[in-house]
TrEMBL record:
Residues 1-11 have a biased composition (Basic and acidic residues). This is PatU. It comes from Limnospira maxima CS-328. Residues 1-50 are annotated as: Disordered. Residues 20-30 have a biased composition (Polar residues). It comes from the Bacteria.
Length: 339
């Protein structure tokens, strides 16, 4: 029957357990290199594998004592082993922590999932005020403005510079962000400025003070006058086979000079640009049919030529200095067939 116990089997099991208790698992014969007994084989086969541990986990659970004041002195040769083991565990722990939480740059507060580190500089159209603000001292009405206001005005002026809007509309668009709730009054003053009604006698009546102490109407006039100066200075109009158009802009690195000429050659009409850079940089001329670029690594002259440009079309000329964190300064180059 299945429930009955075999007497021989029961006796064999008792003898096995009695023998295993009276002898260690490792016998003298095993230590001497002889084959293991059946008890040894059974003990080894029934041993449960311990779960695997990574080296990083060992650092949390393994205690390494370099000094043992209450025990026997460490034998010569054991300290380097302990030291190497400790360094290995420490390096693995640091590697895992860096992988799980990468270190941040000094300017970062946290590492976002969408963090992007571009390896090229984009070509924005808004200037960096730190390099272009020096021109404020060369413009009559800009001297009335604080440097920060001039920088804030230069940004929208750059945006409307290549627009096909009329001058009055350009001025309003350049200044409207300063007076979002007074568009009617702003349009009125822009119209008077374009028509020439704002002359010195009129300005004297207004008694224009510095921008910080001026009222809203006075600030409008100051910004409109400064915006017109900026747009005029950044625009170079050149007529076919006529005189050269030239403009200057003071930068923090020195005076920037740009001139344009529209001439007839044997191979067609050509738009020629000549710029004198106060430092190494590049010029980039953009139009509807592509772009051309010229550069030099140090201060000096840079030239470029565009064959058969589109007449009566405004081209964008970007000026960018090397080794400087700035956005380009943009000129509007306007080749015209006739005056």
């Amino acid at each position: 029957m299945n429930n009955e116990i075999n007497p021989d089997r029961q006796l064999s099991e008792c003898q096995f357990f009695e023998g295993s208790e009276s002898q260690p698992l490792e016998t003298a014969s095993s230590a001497a290199g002889e084959p293991a007994t059946s008890a040894d084989q059974l003990a080894n086969s029934s041993r449960v594998e311990e779960p695997g541990w990574s080296e990083a986990d060992l650092l949390d659970y393994e205690e390494i004592d370099v000094f043992y004041p209450n025990d026997e002195p460490i034998k010569l040769g054991e300290i380097p082993t302990v030291k190497d083991r400790f360094e290995s565990l420490l390096k693995n722990r640091l590697r895992i922590e860096i992988q799980e939480k990468p270190p941040l740059f000094p300017w970062e507060t946290e590492l976002g999932a969408d963090a992007i580190y571009p390896d090229v500089i984009s070509d924005p159209t808004v200037p960096n005020p730190s390099w272009w603000n020096a021109q404020r001292e060369n413009l009559k009405w800009s001297t009335f403005l604080p440097e920060t206001v001039f920088a804030d005005l230069l940004t929208p002026c750059q945006k409307v510079l290549h627009s096909t809007l009329q001058q009055g509309a350009k001025l309003v668009e350049a200044v409207e962000s300063f007076f979002p709730q007074a568009s009617d009054l702003l349009n009125e003053w822009a119209g008077r400025l374009v028509l020439g009604e704002v002359r010195d006698p009129e300005l004297n009546k207004l008694q224009l003070p510095p921008y910080e102490t001026a009222n809203q109407q006075q600030q409008m006039v100051l910004l409109l006058l400064a915006a017109r100066e900026i747009l005029d200075t950044l625009t170079i109009t050149c007529f076919l086979n006529k005189s050269v158009g030239l403009q200057e802009w003071q930068t923090s690195l020195g005076l920037l000079t740009v001139q344009a000429q529209y001439q007839t050659r044997d191979y067609g009409n050509c738009l020629m640009i000549l710029a004198k850079l106060p430092a190494g940089g590049c010029l980039q001329l953009k139009g509807n049919h592509g772009e051309i670029t010229a550069r030099r690594t140090e201060a000096g002259y840079v030239t470029m030529e565009l064959v058969d440009p589109e007449p009566n079309h405004i081209y964008r000329l970007n000026v960018l200095f090397y080794d400087c964190e700035q956005n380009p300064l943009c000129f509007a180059i306007y080749p015209r067939m006739m005056s």
